[in-house]
Amino acid sequence: MNRNQVLPQVQLSAEPHALKRVDLCAPQSYQGAGFLAISDMPRLAEEASSINPGDGFEWQMKTHFEDSPGSEPRQILELALKGRLHLICQRCLQDCALDLDEKRRFVLLASEAEADEYPMEDEEQDPLVASQHFNLLETIEDEVLLSLPLIPKHPEGFCEPHSSVFGLEEGDEGVDELENPFNILKNIKKN
Question: Which of these, 77, 73, 105, 79, lies nearest to 6 by C-alpha position?
Fold first, then answer.
């Protein structure tokens, strides 16, 4: 008998405050979907260069149980995120819209010790510790933050490097040759 057929399926509310306390230890499976605005995720809002009305992330999640050879079935959480965020392009220093479309899969474990022992070689799913007060909103925000590029940039050819990126000021007509810092050492050696 499949455990998923026996367990009740609970529909999660799309309200941000309801996502802060989900009982993942209860004998049931969950599913839910909704939209989170950037303002619902304060750490993400700090990263944004600007926030437009449509900026935010559509999310979908579901949990189910999978048989695990030699042990109890494991609870799996699947999370899909799709949305837009504005960051500063590090090439031109202008606003840059970043579209994200991510899918994540987690195995829910009972304790931190189990999560620490979970094999790092498993690239299909990451461990998460289930609790009676699981903060799904924080997990969604964490996954968006982890998906952000280290150096946000427009696509190649879309923008020109900003002059201050190379140490030149806006008014400079382009210095023919920047002074070599080793020239000082060369002059000391001559004296």
Answer: 73
Return all residues near 18 (Cβ < 8 A) that are at least 6 apart: 12
Whole-number Å distance between alpha carbons of 82 and 67:
29
For 93-118, what is each residue's pLDDT tens digit?
888 888 999 999 998 888 888 888 88
| pTM recorded for the entire structure | 0.75
Note the helical H segments in the chain.
Answer: 3-6, 42-47, 112-117, 136-147, 182-190
Residue with tokens 């969604």: 140
Amino acid at 102: E
d(CA 109, CA 169): 54
The label of the residue with tokens 């799996």 reads: 76
Neighbour tally for 63: CB within 10 Å? 24
Measured CA to CA, the distance from residue 70 to residue 27 in angstroms comes to: 21
Return the bridge partners of 83, or none: 57, 100
